[in-house]
Amino acid sequence: MRRISTTLATIAVASAVAVLGPAGTASAGQGCITPAEYAKVKRGMTKAQVQRVVGSNGVQDWSRRTGGHTYEERFYSACRGLGGAVMTFRDGRLNLKKAAW
């Protein structure tokens, strides 16, 4: 299950990069993430805590409720070059993060 989640997160990062293109092409207000900010973000943090670290809410990729839990995935584009980070929240707390720089 963990391998599938990791693979899906990696695919989501690659897909989001393909759609958004280089950093700076994201819509105004979406902000960006640096590798240093990414390193500060830890599992269990709330969306508000992540926003304070990154300075952005990112872009919601999807959201669903299943098994009594709410899951949400957000994409944060890289501040320089291609890439970015995908973060999955479970019940409002960071559950999984993946990045491609």
Q: Can you lay out the helices and strands and say which pair or pack?
A:
Elements lengths: L1 H19 L14 H6 L6 H8 L4 E8 L2 E9 L6 E7 L2 E8 L1
Antiparallel strand pairs: 1-2, 2-3, 3-4
Describe this structure in words.
The protein has 101 residues and is an alpha+beta fold. 33% of the residues lie in helices and 32% in strands. The chain has helices spanning 2-20, 35-40, 47-54; strands at 59-66, 69-77, 84-90, 93-100. It has a four-stranded antiparallel beta sheet, covered by helices on one side. Strand 3 and strand 4 (93-100) form a beta hairpin. Mean pLDDT is 83; it is low at 18-28.
H and E string = HHHEEEE
Low-confidence stretches: 18-28
Distance between the termini: 25 Å
- What sort of overall outline do the alpha carbons produce when their principal axes are compared? globular
Q: Radius of gyration from the CA trace?
A: 13 Å
Largest sheet: 4 strands, antiparallel
Count the strands? Answer: 4
User: How much of the residues is beta strand, in percent?
Assistant: 25-35%
Helix- and strand-based class? alpha+beta
**Number of continuous helical runs:** 3
Instruction: Report the mean per-residue pLDDT as an integer.
Output: 83
Please bin the fraction of helical residues. Answer: 25-40%
The largest sheet has its strands arranged as 1-2-3-4
